[in-house]
Each structure stands twice: as structure tokens, then as C-alpha cells.
Amino acid sequence: MTEELVEIPFQQLDPEILRALLEEFVTRDGMDWDQAGCSLDDKIAQLRAQLKEKKIRIVHDLKSESTNLIPVDKV
């Protein structure tokens, strides 16, 4: 991981903050998940499962001051 990226352990986040972060990530592209056959709650549950399975991580970029979910192999 570069010096500009700081991993945020999802287990240390308040459940409401984690939900808000995941919801913001899912809705960034403006996609209507209901039309895609997957509800917003379903998509958030998928991301939670990926976090628990260590397939993705939450990272904060100090340079851009943005937070993202990235695949583990890119950390």
C-alpha cells in the first residue's frame, strides 16, 4: 500500500457509518439498482460479505481526501 493510502478496518467503523459509506459507494455511478434486478440493500450486503471475506478493503487516500473500496490485490 502506498503512503498516501490508509486502510480503514471495517470492523472498527460504527455500523451506521459503514452502511453510509457502502451506500455512498454503491450509488456513486447513479445506477438504479432496483431496475438492475438488485436492491440497494442487496448490493450493500454483497459488499459487506466481500469485506468479511477479505476480497475488498476500505482505503482512504490522503492526497485526494477520498475513501474507496478496492480489491485486495490492488492494496
Summarize the structure.
The chain has 75 residues and is an alpha+beta fold. The chain has 2 helices and 3 strands, in the order βααββ.
Description:
The protein has 75 residues and is an alpha+beta fold. It has helices at residues 15-27, 40-52; strands at residues 5-7, 56-61, 66-71. It has a 3-stranded antiparallel beta sheet with strand order 1-2-3. A hairpin with a 4-residue loop joins strand 2 and strand 3 (66-71).
Could you list some keywords that capture this structure?
75 residues
Q: What is the approximate shape?
A: globular
**Strand fraction:** 15-25%
Gyration radius from CA atoms, angstroms: 13 Å
Query: Which range best describes the helical content: under 10%, 10-25%, 25-40%, 40-55%, 55-70% or over 70%?
Result: 25-40%
The first-to-last residue Cα distance is 5 Å
**Overall pLDDT, averaged?**
88
Main pleated-sheet profile: 3 strands, antiparallel
Low-confidence segments, given as residue ranges, are none
| Structural class assignment | alpha+beta
Number of helices: 2
**Order of helices and strands, N to C?**
EHHEE
| Strand arrangement in the largest pleated sheet | 1-2-3
Number of strands: 3
Please specify the SSE layout and strand pairing.
Elements: E1 5-7, H1 15-27, H2 40-52, E2 56-61, E3 66-71
Helix pairs in contact: 1-2
